[in-house]
Amino acid sequence: MFLCSCQDISLCCADSKMPLLQTEASGPEPHRPQEPVEPHTPAQGARRASSEDAPRDRPEGSRPGRGTLQRAFSRVSQRASGQAPRGDAGLLRLSGRFLFRSLRRTSDNGPAGDQTGATSEPGPAGGRKGSSKAKEGVGRRSSTGTGPEEAEGTSVADLISKRQLLAAFEQLWHLETGLLAEKASCTFQQDPTDFARRAMDVCLHYDGLTEEIGAIVRETLGPDGVDAAALAEVARVVLAEEEAHPEPPADGDFLRTPRGWRQHWENAVRRSAEERVRQAGAGEAPGAADAAPDVARLLAELGGLVRRDLQKVQREVHPAYAAAGFPAWQTYLSAFHGAVAPRFQELTQDARSYKQLYVLLDWATNVYGSPDFLGSQDQTVPSGPLPPLLAPDVWARLEDHCTSFLETEIASCFDRILQLEQNRWAAAEAPDVLQGLYRTTLSSDVCMLVAEHAKAASAISTKLEATTLGICARALGLFLPRFKTAFLESGAVSEPNLCASINACEELRTHLLAKFPESFGELEKPLVAATCAFQKQLLQGLQGDVQPLFRVLCTKAWLTQDLLKPLMDKVVAFSHLLEHMAPPLAQETLQEVHRYVVREYLAQALRPHQRFRGEDRLSGSKKMRFEAQAISNTFQELGSEAKWLGQAIPCVADIMGETRKDDIGRHLETLIRSYPDIRRDHVLAILALRRLGHRWNQHFLRRTQALLRAAAKAGGSGATGGRVLFEEIELSTSVGMVITCI
Q1: 100 is in which domain, residue-wise?
Q2: Which residue among 214, 231, 259 closes a domain?
Q3: Helix locations, 512-613, DSSP H
Q4: Residues 398, 386: one domain?
Q5: What is the pLDDT of residue 379?
Q6: Is residue 417 part of a domain?
């Protein structure tokens, strides 16, 4: 705002070559016999104190003396230097009435009586650029209905108090123009204090207009509603002042200096927005680390207040200013955004947990930054999403802080998941069956944890989403070994719980790895390791039950009894458990059981407790072929897809019972080609079942030597495709000694 000072007035007096103040109070100024009585008309909305509220003990005919002027100059100087408090905005209306009365008397008689003529024909003092526009601007009347005659008989102070701002400015502009004309004509050479007093009056009235503009702006968003007429009056008086004072004068005359009311109006809008924003959550601040709901409530209150105020500006304030050709929407929008940004930054500095930071980031991105934040907008008020609240570097630091909190948060979540599983094991709770499969809450808890954090982060930024998924993947990679160890060491390792844990690992693999392959790709190994450990534990239970049943095979009693049936009954019973396992892993486990049965059968045959001769050998060969078919049929009915195991036992049985020695080589070639993991010791053990003698054994070994080398090379390079059978069959020392003797 423009404020005159004693120094400025002194300079003007010095330019006129006049002493500023006399040592004695000047005499009484001439005045009309009867002064018009000023009407007391209440103004719209909140009204300032009018000039008639001032003290009345001064005689009508007196003029202020030196002391009075010194105090007035001192007060103006303080306001110009910024020392006066904000509450001194109504200085004019709170000062003595002598200033306004003297201003009216001066305009009615005396040397200033020709001000009307000076205003219409400013002469040298008024011949500045833009004077024609100024006269046209001040010629317009206020929309409040004050006519020329009514304004003519009303003081400037009363016009300001009634918020007839344009009429008040017109009078001030006429007074200013006349005062400049009188100064140019050296009228004040004999009475310089009269010029100082009148110049101070003009400046004080300009200050009063300035303060009234600020007061109207402050009241605009208050609870009393919008005074559209007052806003239009503000717009007109700002535009009129800009036309009257288009640019600073070349001679530096303070009276003709632009008052900067547009900037003052913008500053008032900004201060009003700041005051409104500070009202949201006044006296409330985020507390401890678990007080995230308080932050959410504060942000909800802040967002609601800003939304209501800006919608009010859209519907009522902007149209009132726009009718007078004055832009208001963008100014209010920028003011509120400038007020919300530092308030939001204060809240981020007080955040003490991941939840608080997430609430803040989510509000800034998805609430405040949303195009729908202000609701349906008027077509004449275009506005997209509000700008970011924080600078990019500040936002990046905030995301880094959120990442640090997130690592701790997710680690604690996995600790709670493990604790829940341990509580369930301690309670010996059986797993639930959902859609025919054993289920545990492990997979659903982990998937929900990852999904919720990923969704929340993606709503804020792509970078934060990728960071969150990486944190979840690392935390899960550390969790799986802990979970595996804790489960296997607990007393809850039952077949249903093992199936449920295997299903959980499979669900994590299919859900997380399929949905987030880039982030969770490295989890394949720990998931497979945990699954294999649980499968191994499950198979060990079956092996412990059926292993004693293999020992009676390939014995004298075996030739005459059905000793395989009890073993296969246990296998069939075990297969019912696999019906509650995820299909891929159930098939994998069933094939592993199939391989185990064939392998252990062959191991028992290759290291027999006694060897068959003659008819017993032929009977044994026939029984082996029969039981091989029974094993194959049983696993085929159970759904095993390991058809590659079907040739192992029949080939050994054919060699054992072959009567034509030349055909033994053909059976060996078929066996070696079907199972590349077979070795020379295995071939010798099979030949020992036939009891051919040293020469025939050496003959068949030489015949199959190339095939054995190729098989050894294929087995060593992993070309068997995971089909391992003979490699896991260990021959006993006694068999080795027999082979050596052969």
Answers
A1: 6-20+91-259
A2: 259
A3: 514-515, 517-520, 524-550, 556-560, 564-578, 583-606
A4: no
A5: 57
A6: yes
Nearest to 36 by CA among 135, 154, 130, 185: 154
User: Closest Cα to residue 187, out of 255, 71, 248, 106?
Assistant: 106
Asked if 254 and 286 sit in the same domain, the reply is: no
Rounded to 10 deg, the angle between the 462-489 and 392-426 helix axes is 20
- Domain co-membership, 103 together with 160: yes
Residue 32 in any domain: the answer is: no
Cα separation of the two ends of the chain? 118
Indicate if 414 and 381 belong to the same structural domain. no
Instruction: Based on the fold, state whether residues 668 and 619 are members of the same structural domain.
Output: yes
Tell me if 516 sits within 8 A of 454, measured CB to CB. yes
Residue 191 CA: distances (Å) to CA of 10, 269, 515: 13, 43, 91
Instruction: Let me know whether 709 and 627 are in one domain.
Output: yes
Q: Contact 557/563 with Cβ under 8 angstroms?
A: yes
* Rg of the chain, C-alpha, whole Å: 50
Are 179 and 302 within one domain? no
Half-sphere exposure at residue 88, Cβ-oriented, CA atoms within 13 angstroms: 13
Domain count, the chain: 4
Please state the φ and ψ torsions of residue 22, each to the nearest 5 degrees. -90, 160
- Cα–Cα distance for residue pair 70/686, rounded to 1 Å: 129
* 437-439 and 432-434 strand pairing: antiparallel
Is 462 a member of any domain? yes
187 within domain boundaries: yes
- Rounded to the nearest 5 percent, the helix, strand and coil shares of the chain are 70, 0, 30
pLDDT at 572 (0 to 100): 96
User: Same domain, yes or no, for 670 and 735?
Assistant: yes
Dist. CA 533–CA 524, nearest whole Å = 14
Helices (H), 282-427: 292-312, 318-323, 329-349, 354-362, 392-426
What's the rounded Cα separation, in Å, for the pair 92 and 212?
A: 11
DSSP character at residue 90? G
Q: Identify the sign of the CA torsion 416, 444, 425, 592.
A: negative
pLDDT tens column, 469-497 = 999 999 999 999 999 999 999 988 899 99
What pLDDT, on the 0 to 100 scale, is given for residue 495? 93
CA dist., res. 420 & res. 483, Å (int) = 11
CATH of the domain at 402: 1.10.357.50
pLDDT in tens, 160-213: 999 899 999 999 999 988 888 888 888 888 888 888 888 888 899 999 999 999
Count of C-beta atoms within a 10 Å radius of residue 508: 23
Amino acid 720: pLDDT: 57
Residue 461 makes CB contacts below 8 A (sequence gap 6+) with 365, 399
| Sequential DSSP letters for 124-175 | HHH-STTHHHHHHHHTSPPTT---HHHHHTS-HHHHHHTT-HHHHHHHHHHH
Pick the last residue of a domain from 374, 390, 406: 390
**Which of the residues in the chain have pLDDT under 50?**
1-150, 286-292, 736-737, 740-741
| pLDDT the model gives residue 136 | 40
